[in-house]
TrEMBL record:
Coiled coil: none annotated. SUPFAM superfamilies: 5' to 3' exonuclease, C-terminal subdomain (SSF47807). GO terms for molecular function: 5'-3' exonuclease activity; 5'-flap endonuclease activity; metal ion binding. This is Flap endonuclease. The keyword Ribonucleoprotein does not apply. Gene3D superfamilies: 5' to 3' exonuclease, C-terminal subdomain. The keyword Metal-binding applies. Keywords: Endonuclease, Hydrolase, Magnesium, Metal-binding, Nuclease.
Length: 118
């Protein structure tokens, strides 16, 4: 179940327990030992850093191995989707930024203008 469907089901049924009781079990196969309490806990008490010191952020090439380890191995993301997303990030980084309008037009040399008499 994706994020939008999960939100729709929560709004419709009110809780994870009610969803599990009322969900179409033929369409959605939910394991008997699925730790839904842990899923709820992720939203109520997310894992956040309480480091009071601000980390300095900088843009650099993505650490592919680190991203795959964190997203796929530690958090259960799909390996193919993560790999494709990394490739998109790398491709976007190599593209040039948007050009300015002046770069499309060159200034035309103006003919000498007659000086008006006063």
């Amino acid at each position: 179940i994706g994020g939008q469907t999960a939100l729709k089901l929560i709004r419709q049924h009110g809780s994870i327990e009610n969803i599990l009781e009322n969900i179409n079990k033929e369409r959605y196969q939910i394991p008997e030992d699925w730790p839904y309490q842990d899923a709820r806990l992720l939203f109520k008490e997310p894992l956040v850093s309480v480091d009071t010191e601000q980390s300095e952020l900088k843009w650099s090439t993505p650490d592919e191995e680190g991203l795959i380890t964190f997203l796929v191995n530690e958090n259960g993301f799909n390996n193919d989707r993560v790999t494709k997303a990394i490739e998109k990030i790398k491709a976007a980084k190599t593209k040039s930024s948007q050009g300015r309008l002046e770069s499309f037009f060159k200034p035309a040399a103006s003919a000498s203008v007659a000086i008006k008499r006063k």
